[in-house]
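Follow-up to my earlier ticket, as requested here are the two runs.
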Amino acid sequence: MSAVENTNKKSNDKIKSVTLNHLQNYSSVQKVMSIAQSFPVVIGFIQWAMESEINLVNRILDSKMTPALLKYMYARFITLFQKVDNLFEFLVLREGVDSIIKDFQNHNNRMGFWVFWFYIDYMANVFNTLLIEFVIKPFKSVSGNQSKDKITSSENLPNVKELTVTTRNISNDIQGKAMEKYEILFKPTTDKLNNEFFEPAMKTYHDNLNKSQNIPKALYTTGIDIGNLTLEKLNSMKNNNESITKTNQEN
């Protein structure tokens, strides 16, 4: 194992970066690593600096003097770094660079209209992945079919179809949750309004209309009746509040 590979292996074991591991698969990166092997002093310094920094961070985190909040923030930072690292490796390197290289080779190393289809499908893949990672997974909603092991041709737009399924599932899930919230939060209020206001108002209107056989007069009479009923309810609520206040003061 070369000095560069040894350094990368040690750093990756500590950092656990899938992006760094993936980058080593590219020939251009391998050439840079081969050139760097001719500077062992520089490689040794980089390795020493990285190990020193990691050891310092570990000593700080293991110290009893370190506030718990700082340890929590560091753990959250590592979690966020790993998520961003995984997304970058998947979206930019695997689904971006690797996919376009494969499509380029499949088209005899020639540019063409297939680039347009690749762009559309790639953007659909990006949006679909972000929806799954930041909408579906955090709220434990519907499951998305995110494949990370197979690179397909972009001409059939598989990611556009998958994005359509994902967005449709999210829409159905949101509608279901909205109906649940409606049943809990709003339906009791609407039922109360319907039972105490709308139904009595319609009954009063029909009674007045049957008596007078005159729509304007029935509307006018109904308005007066509703106003009187509203005043009665307001006075009743006011009397109840005054009674409760008086009882509290006596106690």
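Run two:
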Amino acid sequence: MRVLCTVTGSRSHIHALRPLARALADAGHDVLIATTADLAHASAATAGPAHVLGAVGLENAIGAGPRVVACLPDLQAFIRDSGRSPGPPGRAGEDPWPPFILDMLAGTTDTAWPALLAVAEGWRPDVIVRDGMDLAGILVAERLGVPHLSMPSGTANVLPPASVLSALNRLRAAAGLPACDDPRSVAPCGRIDYVPEHYSFACHRIPALRYRQPLDRDPAAVLPAWVTGAAPGRPLVYAAIGSTAREVASGHKPSPAREVAATDEPSPAREVAAAHGPSSGFPHPERALRALIEGLSLLPCTAVVATGGVPLGDIRAAPHVHLAEWVPQPLLLECADLFVTHGGYNSVREAMRTATPMVVLPLFGDQPHNARRVAALRLGCQAGGQSGEAVAAACRAVLSDRSVQGVARAARLAMLTLPGVEQVVADLERLVRER
């Protein structure tokens, strides 16, 4: 079986694909990963034994291990170059991010679709496992007449199939493909997810093949030795704002800041104002990082903050707050008492896998939706604003609430009832056979 996978967006999307690609390759199937130039070498490094290929001679690229080809446009660069921002909340405080994301995805598909088609026509896949931010994979699957599924994706979770269908039909027309009036044509074979149905983050009812969130550890990763010297009796808090905030924000002028009181009720309108200011725009990674560091400096804890390479400027941390550009997140979550996160879907799933309660400080994209869902499931709460005081208040609330810890453990137990990702091999084999 030949499996064409697509990865776009950020490195976290590679983490979702890596165990699946390895399982398929270990079972003897041929796996090709199509991605962006920036992610190509990251894909090769993280997918196990792999080779980075050009777009020529793919029909001969059969052998052990996933292979990687750089052919997709850089979505983050497209967003920066477009000069557009999500705009203010819509009517009734509607979240402005999903329509903006869909507009950006459709915009990159004009370039991605012919490039991916050229690769696929050489590779001749039996099935396509696509990034949830990849619409070109749908068009290519329809052109070749092969099934397709999307990977676990925060973006796919928040985009209503009816809205995607409208954009997809415009893209189909441009590609010479027939239109369809059924929203289910967006995902006719369903999707892949790594959380139980009860804990789903999807705002739609597209069926899912569900596997438990893999413990995606780098065998070479270790925690810093100073972790063992953490003050006994104090909680260990890990905080991170994700790997893409700096890249997405670059090239966009920050909006005027507006503080939101910690007692304010979260809403899409408040989330946008809290993260970006009243005029809306792109996230302030420096502001979010300042809020994390200042908030954790107010708490009696041992804290680790992954800065993601965001410049610290004049931000100063208390002695018990340790700063690092990067830490092995899956390892640290195994021992953390609390995770203060931007709310990326990959990070949320990793916290659920380790039963780590969360405080979510969302910045953009699907993160505001994920923050609301974390709170609704009682896996943690959303910070009331991007200030140190708001972060500290949210952390105190979660750390003092034993019921949140109980819910987090229950979610982990439910996740452990799902089959391992290795089950995807039999599921895809059956899907291809039945087509």
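The only thing I checked on run two: The chain is about 40% helix and 15% strand. Let me know what else you need.
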